[in-house]
Structures are given as C-alpha cells and as structure tokens.
C-alpha cells in the first residue's frame, strides 16, 4: 500500500470515528425522549457568532413547552435548562442536598485565589459557608454602614468637582466602579484605595484586570468547562499571576500589620483574622473552630472584592440609566429621599436607608431587567427523578438556571422590557412564584453578601439622587448593547449620561 493510500484511509478513519463519536454524544437527549434543541457539529448549541452567553441561554429557553426543562449541548456536553419554576425551586431549595455543587473550576495549587466559596464544592464549601455567613448578618452590616457612608461622601465631593454648573456628560460606569472599589477596599481590607481621586490606583487597576484581562481564551475556557481535571493537570489558572500576587501580598501585609499592632476594625478583614486564629465570628469569646489558612483567607477576601465591586457598580449603572430614561420614576425616588431624610434631621442613618423602600424597588427592578449573573449552575450529585414525571436527571449532569430569561419572561413579568419598580411592591412579590426573581440566587448557595451588596448600592444611589439629576445624552446608548467579552452583563463601551447638580 502506497503512502497516499495510507494517508487517505487514515483520514477516512479519523473522520468516521469523529462522526460516530459526535453522533453518539448528540443522541443523549433524543434517546431519552425529552424536549431538546437539535445540536450542530461541533459546538452543540453554541454559536460560531461572537455573542454574550445570555444569547445562548435565550436561544434554548425559547424552545420551552409544557416540559419542565429544555435539553441542550455545550460542545458534546449535555446540559439542562430548566423552564419550570417549580423544578428550579426543587433544585435550589427543596432538593438542595442533591444539587449542592456548582461544578465550578478551581485550582488551589497553581491559582490559590480561585479556591473561594463561590467555586469550591463539597465539604470545603460547607465549611467556608458556615464560617463566613455570620460576617454578613444585619448586625455586621450596621458596623460597616458608617464606612460605606464615609466613602459615599467622598464620592459626592469628587463628583462635585467634576460636574460643571451647567451639567456634564460623564461615563458613569467607571465612576461607580471606583466608588465600589473604595468601599470594598475599606470594608474588606481596611485600606484607603483612593480610586475616586486616582482612576489608576492599584486596586482599580487590578480590579479591571480581573474582568477585562483574562489569561485564558475561548479554547482554554471550553477546556476548563469540559475537562476540569485535565485543566488542573495542565496548570490552567483563571487569574494572571500579577493579579494573584497583588491580592495575596495585600492580604498578607494587612494581616501582619494588624496582628503586630493589635489593630481591630469592624470590617471583613477583621472577621477573617478571627477565622485565621480559630475564633468564630459570631462568638469571639470562647468558641474554637478549624483555622483558615492564609491562602483560604486571601481567596475569600478576593471573592468579596471581585464580586462586591463589580456587581454593585453594574447594578447602580443600570439603575441610573433607567432613571435617566424615566424622569418620573427618578423624581419619585428623589422625593422619597427628601421626605425620609427630613424625618431623620438630614442624616443618612442605617434606619433611614431601611425606610427608603422605593429605592430598594428600583434596585430590584434593575436586577430583574439586567441581572449581572445571567445564569446559575448546579450539578446533580446523584440520580434525580423530576417530581410528577418519569424523567431522570443523571448523576453529574449540569443545570443552567436561566436567570435572564426568567426575568424577561412575559408570562412572569408582563411587558418585561418596561422598567417598572412597582413590580416589587410587597403585594406584587407575594403574587409571584418565589423563584421568579433570582438576582441574588436562592437557597443555601445564594449570594452570601446580598445584604452588603444591597446596602452599598442603596447608599450610592441615595447619595447620587440626593445631589444630582441624571438624563440621557447624545452618547447614551439606546438600546443598550452588551459586551460579549465580559461574563457579567456589562454595557459595551461604558455608560454615558448627562449629570446636573441640584
């Protein structure tokens, strides 16, 4: 047999094996007789066109019918997109014991900051959650409240220097990210980041790099998703080394300084120091617990920083955008702020903020229309029969809960593209399924920092609306376009609004 024949037959064999492999993989849902979206070679239901991942979820969700979920594929990997709110409640809450894993990627050896509470599973997650939950109680929020207000006042002073008497057109997303960076820097690390004064401060610089300068490309991301164990053997890291080194060194230096000088503050870092020394956060006097290592502490501090500054600044960005487009809603919010502050002698106290229910409704509606995290993931720990059906979810199968789609489903929220804070009056909330709003997730693996996130977002919006009016400008994007390169739902090209002083 000549070389040409060998090459030809080898090629035919490879093509045949590949065809049989994909055909077998792509028959998973068909063999089970469930509602699914027909995949295409080789990406499954992913698109070759560059788009935000929410578009993949939307394309699958639109195939929903009376079945509780739609089957789909990411490459050859079968996944579940649940469309029944009852099934979602089972997964997140009622049958959490079988869906406690997110199936996230972490690499504790090469990338210690990736082993934080959001990405780890099993006993490690359970241990971290138990230890860290007491740091986010309403009592702890009251301790941190004055720090957030102090940063908000600095934010107001910075903006006052920027906004001209006749008004200015500003890119507000970066300004808001600088505000939340300084808040998290103070509350998580006890450090004055000075991002408001210096847009290129170290914390703002590395904060940008977390979301805008990933060391992995699309191919590596798919490797991490499909073959996490192989990715760990190949030493794949989700963070650039300079980012990891910065946060590790910052945490280490902060803790060393505090312990040498006996510094105690009512902030997240102080609680982490207690955990490092084996003391429970909710019982400082006597209760001993397993100590956290320096790497574990750094990972949790990194998570608090990354999740806290980006999601809150993004939520405030979308809130201001909608208020600029809906001046009647903006005026109603401003009136509530004036009325309640007058009752509290002009002081922005913890109690005053709690009374501003319309501001909270605006935040909830912004999170509904623009959820920063467009889907939630859960992995089946064992076989699971969906109640009232014969359908079995196999062990190890991943579920992607379509937060964005649920929030935009007209059967759940009539006229979903209309911004209407009155959707979140107590009566409206009671009339909806409890899983109809997933801005912070739900169940035992919901966002542990939701109280803090809401608090800093409220304080930021109240401070801004008390002192400024926001309007659309010639550079305001209508409609919005989302950046496909950023996992969090982010407006492409920033957010330009006209800002006027009172």
From TrEMBL:
Binding residues annotated for heme, in chain numbering: 447
Q: Where are the transmembrane segments?
A: 6-22
- Enumerate the PROSITE patterns for this protein: CYTOCHROME_P450 (PS00086)
Q: Does the keyword Cell cycle apply?
A: no
Any one GO molecular-function label of the UniProt entry: monooxygenase activity
The keyword Nuclease is annotated on this UniProt entry:
no
Name of this chain's protein: Cytochrome P450
Q: Native species of this protein? A: Hermetia illucens
């Amino acid at each position: 047999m000549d070389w040409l024949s060998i090459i030809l037959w080898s090629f035919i064999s490879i093509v045949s094996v590949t065809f049989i492999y994909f055909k077998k993989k792509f028959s998973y849902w068909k063999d089970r007789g469930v509602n699914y979206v027909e995949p295409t070679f080789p990406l499954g239901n992913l698109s070759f066109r560059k788009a935000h991942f929410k578009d993949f979820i939307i394309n699958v969700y639109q195939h929903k019918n009376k079945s509780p979920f739609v089957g789909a594929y990411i490459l050859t990997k079968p996944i579940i997109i649940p469309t029944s709110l009852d099934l979602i409640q089972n997964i997140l809450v009622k049958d959490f014991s079988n869906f406690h894993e997110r199936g996230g990627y972490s690499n504790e050896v090469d990338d210690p900051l990736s082993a934080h509470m959001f990405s780890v599973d099993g006993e490690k997650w359970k241990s971290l959650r138990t230890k860290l939950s007491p740091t986010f109680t309403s009592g702890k929020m009251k301790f941190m409240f004055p720090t957030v207000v102090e940063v908000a006042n600095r934010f107001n002073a910075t903006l006052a220097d920027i906004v001209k008497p006749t008004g200015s057109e500003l890119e507000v997303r970066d300004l808001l990210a600088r505000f939340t960076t300084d808040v998290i820097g103070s509350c998580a690390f006890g450090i004055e980041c000075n991002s408001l004064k210096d847009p290129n401060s170290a914390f703002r610089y590395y904060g940008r790099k977390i979301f805008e300068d990933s060391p992995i490309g699309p191919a590596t991301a798919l490797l991490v998703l499909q073959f996490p164990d192989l990715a760990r053997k190949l030493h794949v890291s989700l963070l650039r080394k300079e980012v990891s080194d910065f946060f590790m060194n910052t945490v280490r230096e902060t803790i060393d300084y505090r312990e040498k000088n006996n510094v105690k503050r009512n902030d997240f870092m102080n609680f982490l120091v207690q955990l490092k020394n084996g003391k429970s956060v909710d019982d400082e006097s006597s209760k001993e617990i397993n100590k956290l290592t320096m790497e574990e502490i750094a990972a949790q501090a990194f998570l608090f920083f990354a999740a806290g500054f980006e999601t809150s600044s993004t939520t405030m960005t979308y809130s201001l955008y909608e208020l600029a487009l809906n001046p009647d809603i903006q005026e109603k919010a401003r009136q509530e702020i004036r009325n309640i502050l007058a009752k509290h002698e002009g002081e922005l106290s913890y109690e005053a903020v709690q009374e501003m229910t319309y501001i909270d409704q605006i935040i909830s509606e912004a999170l509904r229309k623009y959820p920063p995290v467009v889907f939630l993931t859960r992995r089946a720990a064992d076989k699971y029969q969906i109640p009232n059906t014969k359908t079995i979810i196999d062990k190890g199968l991943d579920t992607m809960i379509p937060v964005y789609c649920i929030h935009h489903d007209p059967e759940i929220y009539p006229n979903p593209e209309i911004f209407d804070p009155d959707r979140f009056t107590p009566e409206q909330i009671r009339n909806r399924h409890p899983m109809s709003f997933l801005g912070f997730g739900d169940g035992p693996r919901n966002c542990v920092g939701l109280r803090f996130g809401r608090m800093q977002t409220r304080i930021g919006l109240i401070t801004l609306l008390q002192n400024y009016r926001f309007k659309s400008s010639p550079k305001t994007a209508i409609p919005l376009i989302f950046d496909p390169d950023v996992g969090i739902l982010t407006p492409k090209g920033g957010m330009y609004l006209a800002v006027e002083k009172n």
